[in-house]
Amino acid sequence: MPLWLAATLSAALFQCWRTALQQKLRGTLSLNAAAVVRYLYGVPPGLVLVGLWWWATGGTLPAFSNQALLLCAIGGVLQIFGTVLLIASFAPRGFAVGTAYSKTEALQGAIFAIILLGEHIPPLAWLGVALGVCAVLWLSLAGQVTSLRQVLQATGQPAALCGIAAGSCFGLTAIAIRAANQELAAPDPVLGALCTLVVTNAMQTVMQGGWLLLREPASVAQVFRNWRNAAPVGLLSALGSACWFTGFALAPVALVRSVGQVEILFTLAFSRWYLKERLKTRDAVGALLIMASVLLVILA
Hints:
Largest sheet: none
Order of helices and strands: HHHHHHHHHHHHHHH
Number of helices: 15
Oligomer: single chain
Low-confidence stretches: none
């Protein structure tokens, strides 16, 4: 199995697991506080990952240019907004559906990659991307609408708008991170991706932590008091982001994000057995469509 494919599948699992734990934090932390823990508690595990990979491979740590740092900052800001929008989308419709709307990032990311990076993917992969988008829309809208007018009305609901906006932010985040990795031109792309992760997470901690300190000073103490619940979120965030960044460094964004749609399968499982949310028949149909879309991308 190619390294980028293994990394992407692992990233989908870690991200779903982290998001489920982060959703649980909403009961004790505010929206911004629940989002900031993934960066604050993700920096130490990220440094450990860099150290372990560097020790195992003996590579050379890359030097960050101003442009690479700027791209990391842009990607960090976009990921912050995407995370906040994703968590906000959970409240109106539930964990599984909120995540489903955000998975339109696969199609959005493919379009952004073509426009901004000049990437190209085979026609069969495009079919897989389109099928995946149809699957997540089916998961979100099946049983809710019966006409095009109702589809448009449903898409205008707060959960849909937050989820789609989160997908846009995550798609653009992938573009910025891949561009940062290309700017580094590291001899070892995996070590470069891990270093990019640490730098980006450190910037995100300063940016969103500063915002939290300014707007919600009382929540800062809660972030540290809840370290037992927050630390696993940071660990899973670091593992997931390390896998995503590795995938972006080794393969086109469109392919990585398309295969990453398997996260919805993990999401349905977490939604049913961890968050105790009830699933319906359409969830099984959507899961099968997701699996078919990923297979098409891999075959392409």
